[in-house]
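PROTEIN DESIGN WORKSHEET
SECTION A - STRUCTURE
LENGTH: 403
TOKENS:
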């Protein structure tokens, strides 16, 4: 027996024994994922892609290389496989565990990025990681580890081949040691026929800080799931998601788990669907007993931009301690008619006017998680935002992002 295949076969056996995500699963009842077979590919088929599994470190013009060490792992090599799996959390037993088992069943390569401590007064490490899909069904894995005192800005982008239907089950594990700080910008714009499930699991130690901006568009199925474990006292998370979908399905789930005093979490999502799209925004914050002075905030908003889309907003707080501050809310709205009227009066076509208003709303949401003006021009989300809006409103990217 090929021992390199044992973990993959064990994962398939687990799925066969325990089944796929049931339709009654609370977090997935509004937008059930495709069945397990869609994420597993053909058992025993060797991956002909590159050993880096599609990841590449792109140069940021004008920025010298940062203090980051990259290493690729090959599951076919027992020593590397053991070292890799010891660093990856177990799938657990929640509603999304089946995705993690399906990922293990297909996993062949992984990338680990380690960022060292940043010297006092020095600029943060700047990284641009891009993933290009190279298979019809794939399971990329990225481990990002920030040592104590490290400061990093990461732009993570995903490229999907036009016209090629890709099924991608990605697992991203972020580990922030004491006092580490990460600003994470994520752009995931799949095609109409792509099925995508991205799972980000972050663990924060004492006084660590993580800020994430997500820009995502719809596909045949698109799930963005974030789980934040605030383990150390004073750890903080701020996340903002802009969900654009002209058609298709898109869901973001954010789960913040407070397990220490003085922890803070802020979750914001803005759903901007059009036509016949289905968009679900779910936030769940749990504050455990003993979390003195913990703070939690959720803000979910939905604005249809065209047609008759379906929007589901699900804020939820689970609090097991008294000495905390927590607030949540969900609001519905519409694009401001007065702004549309004035834009039309100035000779701007209606589709472009809608795109410009949506661009302003999106920038405001993202800026509340990360101060975009402090980032290098090459690491902002302007280009991705323009591309997403162009697809949403069937415009040229130059028309979509600028007035």
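SECTION B - SEQUENCE
RESIDUE ASSIGNMENT:
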């Amino acid at each position: 027996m090929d021992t390199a295949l044992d973990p993959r076969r064990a994962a398939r056996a687990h799925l066969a024994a325990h089944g796929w995500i049931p339709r009654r699963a609370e977090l997935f009842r509004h937008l059930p994922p495709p069945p397990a077979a869609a994420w597993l590919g053909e058992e025993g088929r060797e991956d002909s892609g590159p050993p880096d599994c599609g990841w590449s470190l792109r140069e940021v013009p004008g920025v010298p290389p940062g203090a980051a060490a990259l290493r690729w792992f090959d599951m076919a090599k027992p020593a590397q496989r053991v070292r890799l799996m010891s660093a990856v959390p177990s799938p657990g037993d929640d509603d999304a565990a089946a995705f993690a088992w399906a990922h293990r069943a297909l996993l062949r390569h992984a990338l680990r990025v380690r960022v060292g401590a940043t010297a006092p007064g020095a600029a943060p490490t700047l990284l641009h990681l891009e993933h290009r899909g190279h298979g019809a069904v794939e399971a990329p894995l990225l481990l990002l580890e920030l040592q104590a005192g490290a400061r990093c800005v990461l732009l993570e982008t995903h490229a999907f081949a036009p016209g090629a239907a890709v099924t991608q089950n990605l697992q991203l594990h972020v580990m922030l040691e004491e006092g580490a700080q990460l600003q994470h910008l994520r752009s995931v714009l799949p095609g109409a026929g792509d099925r995508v499930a991205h799972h980000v699991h972050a663990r924060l130690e004492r006084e660590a800080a993580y800020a994430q901006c997500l820009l995502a568009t719809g596909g045949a199925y698109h799930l963005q799931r974030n789980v934040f474990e605030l383990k150390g006292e004073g750890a903080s998370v701020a996340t903002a998601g802009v969900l654009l979908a002209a058609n298709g399905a898109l869901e973001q789930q954010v789960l913040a788990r407070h397990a220490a005093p003085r922890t803070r979490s802020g979750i914001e999502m803005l759903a901007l669907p059009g036509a016949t799209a289905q968009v679900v925004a779910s936030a769940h914050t749990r504050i455990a007993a003993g979390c003195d002075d913990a703070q939690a905030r959720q803000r979910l908003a939905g604005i249809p931009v065209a047609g008759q889309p379906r929007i589901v907003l699900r804020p939820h707080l689970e609090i097991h301690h008294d000495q905390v501050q927590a607030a949540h809310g969900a609001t519905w709205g519409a694009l401001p008619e007065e702004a549309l009227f004035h834009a039309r009066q100035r000779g701007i076509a209606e589709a472009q006017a809608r795109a410009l208003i949506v661009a302003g709303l999106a920038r405001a949401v993202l800026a509340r998680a990360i101060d975009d003006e402090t980032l290098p021009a090459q690491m902002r989300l302007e280009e991705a935002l323009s591309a997403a809006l162009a697809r949403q409103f069937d415009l040229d990217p130059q028309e979509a992002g600028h007035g």
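SECTION C - NOTES
The CA atoms of residues 224 and 245 lie 14 Å apart.
Helices lie at 6-18, 37-40, 78-87, 97-106, 337-345, 350-367, 382-393, 397-401.
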